[in-house]
Structure formats: structure tokens, C-alpha cells
Amino acid sequence: MKHFTLEELTRSATAHRLGIDNTPPADAVANLHRLVEQVLDPLREAWGGPIHVNSGYRSPALNRAVGGAPHSQHMRGEAADITVGSRLDNARLYHLLMQLQLPVDQAINEHDFAWIHLSHGPRHRRHYLALR
Fold this sequence. Notes:
132 residues; Muramoyl-pentapeptide Carboxypeptidase, domain 2; 40% helix; alpha+beta; globular
């Protein structure tokens, strides 16, 4: 992991506020490493600037607290919600991601590029979606 840390991939203000333990199990840590090495680090290098992680790993309790999907890849350490600061730049990052053809499972434009959900897992479906 060159540009991202385990701490930033597990940090959660909601977990802190609610006293939820968000420590990932070993298999989720391994998945986070793969997500960073195969998707996030190459994307960061191609972008040429910082990428902020809004949400990475979520324990099942944290996932419930934030209203996450019941089978969210966040709970397996296979997903991260990211931003580069603005909707316009997030849109540029999303299009760069598509051009790079990195092994994503899903890349989701969330709420008109408020952030981008990226996942990497065993399926590598390369789904590019938009959620409003």
C-alpha cells in the first residue's frame, strides 16, 4: 500500500461517535490490501494527486448504523467510497478510472458525483453505474 493506509481505510466518525469497534478481521485486511494495490494505488498514480477515502471497511454494526446494504462489500474490505474534492473532479476521476480499465467489480457514481464507490472482489464485473 503506497498511497493509502489501513487507518484511513477503517476510520469512521460514526463508529467513533457510537462507540462501534471497526477493527477489520484478517480476511478483510487482506481484501483491503488487494483493493489498494490493484485499484486505488494505480488510480492515485494516474490521477497525480490525493484521493480521499470517505468510507472503507465497515464492521457489520457500523454498516447497519450508516444504513449500508445488507451484503455490502464494505463489510468484506472490498470497497471504498472516494472523492478528490469536487463533483467536477470526481467525474474526471471516474472517467479516468474507466479509461484505465482497472480490475474493478463496481464503480458507482453516487449522487451526481458527490463521491465514487469502488469495489474490487472476486467477480471483477467491471460494472460502471450511477445512483441518484
